[in-house]
UniProtKB/TrEMBL annotation:
Domain of life: Bacteria
GO cellular component: cytosol
GO molecular function annotations of the record: guanine phosphoribosyltransferase activity; hypoxanthine phosphoribosyltransferase activity; magnesium ion binding; nucleotide binding
Organism: Protaetiibacter intestinalis
Alphabetical GO biological process terms: GMP salvage; guanine salvage; hypoxanthine metabolic process; IMP salvage; purine ribonucleoside salvage
Protein's name according to its UniProt entry: Hypoxanthine phosphoribosyltransferase
Enzyme class at the top of the EC tree: transferase
Length: 183
């Protein structure tokens, strides 16, 4: 349950904390199978993926290495432009590494398709993507995402790492932001 102050800002809770944890556990069983016998580097995309990274990495019953990147898609408000800038790069050399990018949400897919190409160009052995949420209606580019938590409708959502104006990241659930908050 979210604090009353915050609850009023959501029109609907789409995914509860329990929904999210159960789905992450399922994804982890797949990841464990797929990467058996190989070292794995998980790359979290700041800041939205912080919660997914924390829960996913702790649910994995195996060794992983963790690194972080921060990127910004140029463009204000709630729209992605596809022009991506690296704000914080990885510390890890990706040569011959098996890399799993962990993201909060795929909207247009522009950020992730750029990011995958960028990491592949550094000589990684493989680059796959795990995203907690995907908005199918919004896809402008076809990104091959190996692990998807939930397909959600085309609304602006917040919580569990996802922000609006840097707020709401600390919600345990994912919900639809009420229009009165941004209009
Ligand atoms: P894309 O490049 O796929 O359009 O989206 C890139 C970024 O936009 C996501 O990583 C996320 O930070 C932000 N984004 C897209 N849709 C939403 C949404 O519904 N809610 C929030 N809070 N951020 C979103
Ligand atoms: Mg993100
Ligand atoms: Mg944001």
């Amino acid at each position: 349950m979210e604090p009353a102050e915050i609850q009023g800002d959501l029109t609907e809770v789409l995914l509860s904390e329990a929904d999210i944890h159960q789905r992450i556990a399922e994804l982890c069983r797949e990841i464990e199978r797929d990467y058996e016998g190989r070292e794995l580097l998980v790359v979290g995309v700041l800041k939205g993926a912080v919660m997914v990274m924390a829960d996913l990495s702790r649910e994995l019953r195996r060794h992983v290495q963790m690194d972080w990147m921060a990127v910004s898609s140029y463009g204000a408000g709630t729209q992605s432009s596809g022009v991506v800038r690296i704000l914080k790069d990885l510390d890890t050399d990706l040569t011959d590494r098996d890399v799993l990018i962990v993201e909060d949400i795929i909207d247009s897919g522009l950020t992730l398709s750029w990011l995958r190409e960028n990491l592949e160009s550094r000589g990684a052995a493989s680059v796959e993507i795990c995203a907690l949420l995907r908005k199918p209606e919004a896809a402008k580019v076809d990104v091959d995402v190996k692990y998807v938590g939930f397909e959600i409708p085309n609304h602006f959502v917040v919580g569990y790492g996802l922000d609006y104006a840097e707020r709401y990241r600390n919600l345990r659930a994912v919900g639809i932001l009420a229009p009165h908050v941004y209009s």
